[in-house]
Every structure is written in structure tokens, then in C-alpha cells.
Design brief:
Radius of gyration: 19 Å
Helix content: over 70%
Order of helices and strands: HHHHEEH
CATH class: Mainly Alpha
Strand content: 5-15%
Strand order of the largest sheet: 1-2
Number of domains: 1
Largest sheet: 2 strands, antiparallel
């Protein structure tokens, strides 16, 4: 989708795929950060507590942790799900996150701060606390 949109310089996939595209892109972004955090915590436990952590470091616990990472990513990306849409500019369409009209600059800044806090600062601070 990115390649086609870049080459054509317009969105040709429709409103439904616009929302799906933004949702999946953002969920994948957060899931990557959360998964790296989980992997760091696992490595920490394996190195510092090799014997006692063995009972928690199982495939079933890893599967539950991965599922929780995906669910958390979906939850924190709800603003994008709510506001991603296809917009028309004359005869062409674009796929954008269209923030509320009362003050879109403030909404966009709040989203950037929210993304930085939840997707970077929170996972990094968890790694340093270990």
C-alpha cells in the first residue's frame, strides 16, 4: 500500500482499507516496542535469576505475554482507529489521521506526546528499573 500510494501520489484503496492500514501500522509499531521490552525482561531474568525464573520462562507464558502485547497495542492505538479516514482533495484521495477540528494542532501534539510516552518512555523506563 505504501509503495502504490507513493508511486501514484494518492490513496486508491478506499476508506475501509485506510482505517485498516493505519490501525495495523500503528499496532505493529507499538507491538514491536512492547515485544522488545518483554524480550529484555526475559533476558534480564535469565541472566540474574537463572534458576528461579526458569518456571516462568516457558512457551505458554511467552505466548500469553505476546498476546497481551498485541492486545495492549490495540488498546493504546484506539485514537488512530477513531480518526483515521480517507479525505478528498478535489479528484484525489488521501489516507490521513484527521484529528478533531476544534484544534487539530493540539490533538496532533497530544498524540505525538502520547505515542512517545507509551511507545518509548514507558518501555525504556521499565528496562532501566530492572
Amino acid at each position: 500500500m505504501i509503495m502504490t500510494t507513493t508511486l501514484l501520489r494518492r490513496w486508491v484503496f478506499g476508506a475501509v482499507l485506510c482505517r485498516v492500514y493505519y490501525t495495523l501500522t500503528c499496532v505493529n509499531m507499538f507491538t514491536s516496542a512492547f515485544t522488545l521490552t518483554l524480550m529484555s525482561a526475559d533476558r534480564f531474568a535469565a541472566v540474574w535469576y537463572p534458576v528461579s525464573s526458569a518456571r516462568y520462562r516457558t512457551p505458554s507464558v511467552a505466548a500469553v505475554a505476546a498476546l497481551l502485547a498485541w492486545l495492549a497495542s490495540g488498546a493504546v492505538m484506539s485514537p488512530v482507529v477513531l480518526y483515521a479516514e480517507q479525505v478528498s482533495s478535489g479528484t484525489t484521495y488521501s489516507c490521513v489521521v484527521d484529528w478533531p477540528n476544534d484544534d487539530p494542532l493540539t490533538a496532533a501534539r497530544a498524540y505525538v506526546a502520547y505515542t512517545a510516552a507509551v511507545g518509548f518512555l514507558l518501555p525504556v523506563s521499565g528496562d532501566f528499573c530492572s
